[in-house]
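Dear support,

Our group has been running a series of protein-ligand predictions, and this particular one with S-adenosyl-L-homocysteine is the one our PI (initials K.S.) wants archived with full inputs and outputs. We had some confusion internally about which version of the output was final, so please treat the block below as the authoritative record. The input we submitted was:
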Amino acid sequence: MTIGRPERTDLKGMTLPEMEAFFAAWGKEQYRARQVFRWIYRRYVDDFAAMSDLSKEFRALLSDSCRVSAPPAECIETSADGTEKYLFRLEDGEAVESVLIPDGDRRTLCVSSQVGCALACSFCATGAMGLRRDMTSAEIVHQVCYAARRLSGRGERLTNVVFMGMGEPLRNVTEVSRAIGILLSQHGLGLSGKRVTVSTAGIIPEMLAMAEKVPLSIAVSVNASRDEQRSLLMPVNRRYPLRELVAAMKRIPLQSGRKVTAEYVLLEGVNDSPEDARELARLFRGGRIKVNLIPYNPLEEAPYRAPPPEAVDRFREILLGAGIQAITRERKGADIRAACGQLRAASGGNRG
Ligand code: SAH
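Confirmed final output from the archive:
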């Protein structure tokens, strides 16, 4: 235990209004918060001494009572296709992963929102470990700062963030919302809501609440065409069944020309039949929904296989034939275990 020196306050993860209130309590002007915020999120600086437009006294005060957390990326793997995967070691010894996916001019970072996940989807590596804890907004947003900084070092820019890493973002709404506030702030990461996607296993009330509050992109892991099938793959379906979920997807407020994404992980012999495709098309009829088909990324322990490419194409063509926009997500980073939760599982997980 340290005596005399209180724990320093972590400025990372505070939204701009929170930081303004924090400095206001010290009697500091509002623009001070904006300055510090810009150092952290636009220049990725976490050392107060380097914040050169702040007075010496203010820098000393900050160094004394605050900090900017930056969990180290302990393991970086680079795939032959340019995909990079980072394993972050958090302060309590837990580990989470992020994946950076280059695609043309896009640089998309897939971020984690929880250490583990309580939803126990049967095909998912993160589901197999259970929920260990929620991530803080500092930990969530740090993944983005780290990737953005790394890219800027190469003259590139991070363009998109997707909450498709470990965890269910809508089971950690408070911290995820704070992180999103920072991602969208013009003094923060400055991303547009179109370029930030929250992916959910289908927690209906939180999904609708979030979509109404912030203009984000929403993706829903549908993964099945019938309730019995979906409940087996995704136990959360017992609480929020498919029909209600799709009805809610159709109610999400959208800007013109935008659609809700339905993700569909294709598992051979489980949910990849032509009948599944036709049923899915019936469900989605009349909605502004586009489908992302994801060939399953095999895990050692799980009893599933990816369908052959012909089956994927046939599934997609049935959707297209029914007037439903559908694309097949190219498999990226398969050689570095880039599917949800795979790297942490391989690294031995917790070391705390
Ligand atoms: N909990 C959120 C976000 C994390 S999972 C959600 O469910 O959407 C992100 C996506 O990865 C989901 O669409 C999920 O179905 C998919 N996924 C999980 N494990 C996978 C695997 N082994 N292969 C392919 N996709 C997988």
